[in-house]
Design a protein that fits this description.
Elements (H helix, E strand, L loop, with lengths): L2 H5 L2 H28 L5 H23 L2 H6 L3 E5 L2 E4 H25 L11 H30 L3 H28 L1 H22 L6 H30 L5
Antiparallel strand pairs: 1-2
Length: 248
């Protein structure tokens, strides 16, 4: 379809709005992972890692959009496990979900038992490389899941690319504030890790053909987020009252 036809086609605009909104929602997982994964890096390195993560997310998604015919073949079964046919896409989802579960459980253990100080000095470069490696793995998993969804909703590659660019732009803007908030309120980090753990479980379930509706996960974590926000406000008010000079 020609550019002018797309610009004047109401159906194309409807697809763009719907797909952009969906891509932004799917990008929440990526933003939360970036915030957690870069949490132990020095501030400057964390910002670099987040920017690199957003760039990789955009590159992966656009590259995969130009390989739609290959993406479609990823859904064809290539192996059977316990009577269930697994495609390459399923294997990627299972591997990525397993990786998220492993990292989330590991970070929760560190938060509960072995708090980690910010990595500095000679080990900073190796820590940065490790975080970037994790970002690449998760970006690839989220990109494949995102693009397969996009292919099912829109027919025009131009519409899909525009939606992806807009969604990644929102992710780019949101990643910094989300990371800063998580760093400033350590209790929210455990909540973010629990969210990633649930997403990991959902990815593994999807890989085995047992789809878990993401809306339920987002709703549950949204409710937990509201409760945590109320706790933060209550804590600040208690601290403010404690600092007030005595009356009379």
């Amino acid at each position: 379809m020609a550019l002018m036809e797309l610009l004047t086609n109401p159906a194309a605009w409807a697809s763009l709005v719907t797909l952009t909104a969906l891509e932004i929602v799917l990008g929440i997982d990526n933003v939360v992972f970036l915030s957690v994964a870069t949490g132990h890096l020095p501030k400057a390195d964390a910002a670099r890692a987040r920017k690199l993560g957003m760039t990789l997310a955009l590159v992966f998604r656009i590259a995969l959009l130009f390989a739609i015919s290959w993406i479609v073949t990823l859904k064809e079964p290539v192996a059977t496990v316990f009577g269930h046919g697994l495609s390459i896409k399923d294997m990627i989802l299972i591997g990525g979900g397993g990786f998220l579960i492993y990292k989330s459980v590991g970070h929760i253990h560190e938060e509960m038992e072995e708090p980690i100080e910010t990595t500095l000095g000679a080990t900073a470069s190796s820590a940065f490389a490790a975080v970037v490696g994790q970002i690449i793995v998760i970006d690839l998993v989220f990109s494949i899941d995102s693009i397969i969804t996009a292919v099912g909703l829109a027919q025009e590659v131009a519409v899909m690319i525009t939606a992806v660019i807009l969604a990644v732009g929102v992710m780019y803007v949101a990643a910094g504030p989300v990371s800063a908030f998580v760093s400033a309120h350590p209790t929210t980090k455990v909540l973010a890790l629990a969210f990633l753990l649930l997403i990991g479980v959902a990815l593994v379930a999807d890989g085995f053909g047992m789809h878990l509706e993401r809306g339920y996960i987002y709703a549950a974590m949204g409710f937990a987020g509201v409760v945590e926000a109320l706790n933060i406000v209550a804590k600040k008010r208690r601290e403010a009252r404690r600092l007030e000079p005595p009356q009379g």
